[in-house]
Amino acid sequence: MTRPKAGEKDLLERYVREVGRHLPRSRRADVLAELRELLRDQIDDLASERPLTDRQELTAEVLREMGPPDGVARGYAPQADVWIGPELYPAFRTTAWIVLVVYSALSGLWALGIFDGEIAIIPFHFDFGTSRSWTDVMLGAIANVGIVTLIFGVVERIGHRGQRGAASWDPRSLPAIEDPDRISRTGQILRLTGIAIFALIFNFAPDWLGLFVIRGDGWGTFPVLAPEYRVHLPWLNAFWAVAFALHLAILWQGRWCAWSRAGDLALGLFGAAILYRIVIGGPFTFLDVVMKPVLVIALVATLIGSAVRAVRLIRRAFDHGLEPVPAP
Amino acid sequence: MVGGTQYPGSIGENLLLELRRGLVVLAVLARLDDERYGYALKKDLAGAGLEIEEGTLYPLLRRLEDQGLLASRWRVEDGRRRRYYRLSAEGRRIRDGLAAEWNNLAHTMEGILP
User: Fold this and answer.
1) How many angstroms from the chain centroid is the CA of residue A120?
2) A178-209 residue pLDDT tens
3) Which of A47, A296, B55, B84 supports an S-S bond with B35, CB 3.0-4.6 Å?
4) Closest among A141, A28, A73 to A82, alpha carbons compared
């Protein structure tokens, strides 16, 4: 048995992962584990026949013979005709999730009484009128995901067949594997600095948050924060303190892990709760006509971000347990 | 060698693919009385004169397992963890029926072909 070299392993892993993107989650890990070993067998065999050829070159040759990842994944699909095949499956899944997350965020705002109305982006229809019941909202979610399924089913049948030839496929064009747990130390330090600056300004120099105005006798500031903002200060300070501690710990660890991701998710929900409190509370700034809608958008973005992170966290726990995901 | 034959043009290729499809299933079932992993089976069939593309064979093993014709298990050998396949009782029954049918067809076709 030959230990795979870095370049060969990278190309092999990129291929295996790309096949996995087109497979249902339920059988992905098992199929990929087998496929990885089978490809290694072939590469080893070829290397014993041609010991002078670069192993990365041999890997590319084996993968080229194997064919494009989506075609291989299609082979693993059940024999019965499927509504959405492996080629379109990743795009379908992403689109369905986006629709579901946006719909869920709007449902949350509707439940909190912040949003009341309907949004129609053909062919989708998000109806959250005051007369709607929870049953209507649930049926709306099913209908919108159903529209996505219908569209992709139609495209599957008429749209994309035979678009790409296996002969022209090059394994070196496979996308690189990103390390989702790697942190940027510089980015992390900037984040910590930002949190500290925000906390210091809100606590000790709130007048600095304002509009700079140039007058005849020089320049001055027009403060933005209303005095009533101090009602929220204890919560904001708690948020910044937890955020600072969490990101300091992540910087210390050097990588994201299960507990820091769970902490980040909890922090996001805490932030959303504070934003909600500010949105429904009294004056926060002297420009609330402009600022409150901005805060509502920030609240929706925070909720969507938290929902996406929660789904990713659950998926990772499902795929890898609570063990850290090995770096590629 | 079956896999080495080339037919120019897409109609010829499609007909050959169709002809080979059922044949490949029978060949795989015929060679799995003993436990084998995918690449070993591919080499075994190639040695017997039947070349099967990896992208066809490996998914086929999974599908036959899904259909209950093969059973599989992970096994570590020579430091490598591999998935080994062998015929199930149902697979053996089907294989024997298909083999008998194949022999009949081969005999019939000998009389039909020019």
Assistant:
1) 25
2) 777 888 888 888 899 999 998 998 898 888 77
3) B84
4) A73
Looking at the domain assignment, is residue A178 inside a domain? Answer: no
**What tokens appear for B43 in the block?**
């080499």
Which of A34, A35, A61 to mutate to probe the B interface, most B CBs <10 Å?
Answer: A34
Selected residue of A41, A48, A59, A82 to mutate for chain B interface (largest B Cβ count, 10 A): A41
A78 CB neighbours in chain B (<8 A) are 63, 66
Q: Which residues of B touch A65 (CB under 8 A)?
A: 53-55
Q: What is the pTM of this model?
A: 0.59
Confidence of residue A308 (pLDDT cuts 50, 70, 90): confident
Q: Do A206 and A123 belong to one domain?
A: no
> A72-81, A281-290, B50-59: which has the minimum mean pLDDT?
A72-81
At the topology level, CATH places domain B2-112 in Arc Repressor Mutant, subunit A (1.10.10)
Contacts of residue A37 in chain B, CB cutoff 8 Å?
37, 80-83
Asked whether residue A217 falls in the same domain as residue A268, the answer is: yes
**Confidence class for position B1, pLDDT limits 50, 70, 90:** very low
Average pLDDT over residues B22-26: 90
- Locate the domains of chain B by residue range: 2-112
Total number of domains constituting chain A: 3
Burial of A100 (0-12, 13-18, 19+ CB in 10 A): middle
| Model confidence at B94: pLDDT above 90 | yes
By C-alpha distance, which of A242, A248, A236, A233 is closest to A192?
A248
In a shared domain, residues A220 and A104: no
Residue type, A250: I
Check whether residue A217 and residue A93 sit in a common domain: no
Per-residue pLDDT, B3 = 47
Same domain, A189 and A151: no
Indicate the DSSP class of residue A315. H
Same domain, A38 and A131: no
Q: Which residue from A37, A42, A65 is facing B81, i.e. has the nearest CB? A: A37
Q: Is the predicted pLDDT of residue A121 greater than 80, yes or no?
A: no
- Write down which residue in A133, A164, A195 finishes a domain: A164
Assess contact for A72 and A84: CB atoms under 8 A.
no
8 Å CB contact between A127 and A140:
yes
Contact B24, B102 (CB under 8 A): no
Q: Is there a single domain that holds both residue A128 and residue A34?
A: no
Percentage of chain A with pLDDT > 70?
Answer: 85
Q: Domain range holding A137?
A: 89-164
